């Protein structure tokens, strides 16, 4: 899943970006409030896809609290986790009142941060557990494992990411562009047939009946067999 990291401390930001990538996230990193608001409002207009945002409060150019208020006023529904050194009750209450979904005080254990992000993303898609099951297929999101009929599948990182995106959006058609934006952060060149290649590889492991092609639109996985 692709997330936006908003952190002005270069050392901390670099560490968070690297660590979250190791946890399976695709991470875009900006360092000020104006850039953060631009990216999140672009997401609302469909130009970019972020499953969640990690937002610091003490930012240059625009405070994180103001960024949060602005994006919520413009209808941005992206889950936002506040990650800040401010630990007062008033800061926490103000953030939640402004539309924050979670609030974590620095320093934070990286695995805890990843778990909280998984929980936010899961809840935003109406999921109550870290496992998603469609018919005979099940994925465990934190462990990045997939099983078909109880048998573990050997999936590459990108194959799992494509499968995760499709299962998380079950009964909704995802275009090739939407899937690509879940897979790659800024600066990555993407071959025109990248998604098709991964779908082909998944079908060889899952069979042809689970991932459906909607001609001229994209790909679909259904919650129930038709």
TrEMBL record:
Keywords: Cytoplasm, DNA-binding, Phosphoprotein, Transcription, Transcription regulation, Two-component regulatory system. Residues 129-223 bind DNA. It is found in: Cytoplasm. Its main location: cytoplasm. Residues 129-223 form the OmpR/PhoB-type domain. SUPFAM superfamilies: CheY-like. InterPro entries: CheY-like_superfamily, OmpR/PhoB-type_DNA-bd, Sig_transdc_resp-reg_receiver, WalR-like, WH-like_DNA-bd_sf. The modification 4-aspartylphosphate is found at residue 56. Residues 2-121 form the Response regulatory domain. This is Response regulator transcription factor. It comes from Undibacterium cyanobacteriorum.
């Amino acid at each position: 899943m692709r997330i936006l990291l908003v952190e002005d401390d270069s050392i901390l930001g670099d560490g968070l970006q690297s660590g979250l990538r190791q946890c399976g996230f695709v991470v875009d990193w900006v360092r000020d409030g104006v850039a953060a608001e631009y990216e999140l409002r672009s997401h609302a207009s469909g130009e970019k896809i972020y499953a969640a945002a990690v937002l610091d409060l003490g930012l240059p150019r625009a405070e994180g609290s103001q960024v949060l208020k602005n994006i919520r006023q413009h209808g941005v529904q992206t889950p936002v986790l506040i990650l800040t050194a401010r630990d007062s009750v008033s800061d926490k209450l103000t953030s939640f009142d402004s539309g924050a979904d979670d609030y974590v005080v620095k320093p934070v254990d990286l695995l805890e941060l990843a778990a909280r992000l998984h929980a936010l993303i899961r809840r935003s898609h109406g999921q109550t557990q870290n496992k998603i099951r469609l018919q005979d297929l099940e994925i465990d999101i934190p462990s990045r494992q997939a099983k078909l009929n109880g048998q573990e599948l050997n999936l590459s990182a990108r194959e799992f990411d494509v499968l995760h995106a499709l299962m998380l959006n079950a009964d909704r058609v995802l275009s090739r562009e939407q899937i690509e934006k879940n897979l790659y952060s800024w600066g990555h060149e993407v071959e025109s047939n990248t998604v098709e290649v991964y779908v082909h590889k998944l079908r060889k492991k899952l069979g042809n009946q689970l991932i459906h092609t909607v001609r001229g639109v994209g790909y679909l996985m259904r919650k129930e067999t038709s």
